[in-house]
């Protein structure tokens, strides 16, 4: 909602008596004012009703506010109009205990309290995975297909072959007269298919 314009009351020094009612407005200077009266008093035009919305960097550098709450970085603290305080004021709010949680932002937080202070939802307990989301399937020795080599290593599984794991039982006979569970396994061995089905004894 856009603020309405201000009409000139009279020429001369203004006598200002603003109410203490908290109805924040954002000035064109990017500052949040207590209400429209305070905004007018300093001669700043109104950008919109409500607190100013700023874009803060996503860097993770926890700071303590004078309200006793933790903020993900100094920009978030300033955006909430809170003074900077010594970390000892906030220590009672969040312990320094290391029980990692993974936030939806892909960052690992030291504990759930610090994640909440950052205003980020949780995706899982423990550290966030360090692997990319690129698809380059690999088959593990456990017979499962992993999105890429990194995820395979994260799981602690040995590499079997590049590409998806072969699934299902549809036997084929290779020219070496050996039966394979399916054509996929035959191709992985570099064997030419002789015919579908189990190899006949010779």
Automatic annotation (TrEMBL):
It comes from the Eukaryota. It is found in: Secreted. SMART domains: KAZAL. Residues 1-77, 84-113, 122-165, 169-201 form the Kazal-like domain. Its main location: secreted. One of its GO terms (cellular component) is extracellular region. This is Kazal-like domain-containing protein. It comes from Mytilus galloprovincialis (Mediterranean mussel).
């Amino acid at each position: 909602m856009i603020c309405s314009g201000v009409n000139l009351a009279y020429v001369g020094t203004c006598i200002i008596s603003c109410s203490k009612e908290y109805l924040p407005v954002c000035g064109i200077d990017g500052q949040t004012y207590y209400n429209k009266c305070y905004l007018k008093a300093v001669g700043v035009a109104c950008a919109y009703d409500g607190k100013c919305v700023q874009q803060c960097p996503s860097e993770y550098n926890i700071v303590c506010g004078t309200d006793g709450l933790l903020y993900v970085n100094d920009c978030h603290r300033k955006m909430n109009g809170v003074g900077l305080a010594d970390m000892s004021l906030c220590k009672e709010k969040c312990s320094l205990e290391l029980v990692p949680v993974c936030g939806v932002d892909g960052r690992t937080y030291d504990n759930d309290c610090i994640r909440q202070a950052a205003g980020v939802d949780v995706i899982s307990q423990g550290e966030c995975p360090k692997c990319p989301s690129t698809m380059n399937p690999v088959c593990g020795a456990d017979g499962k297909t992993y999105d890429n080599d990194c995820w395979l290593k994260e799981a602690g599984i040995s590499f079997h072959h590049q590409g998806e794991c072969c699934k299902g039982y549809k036997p084929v006979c290779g020219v070496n007269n050996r039966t394979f569970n399916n054509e996929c396994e035959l191709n992985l061995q570099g064997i030419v298919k002789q015919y579908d089905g189990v190899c006949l004894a010779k």
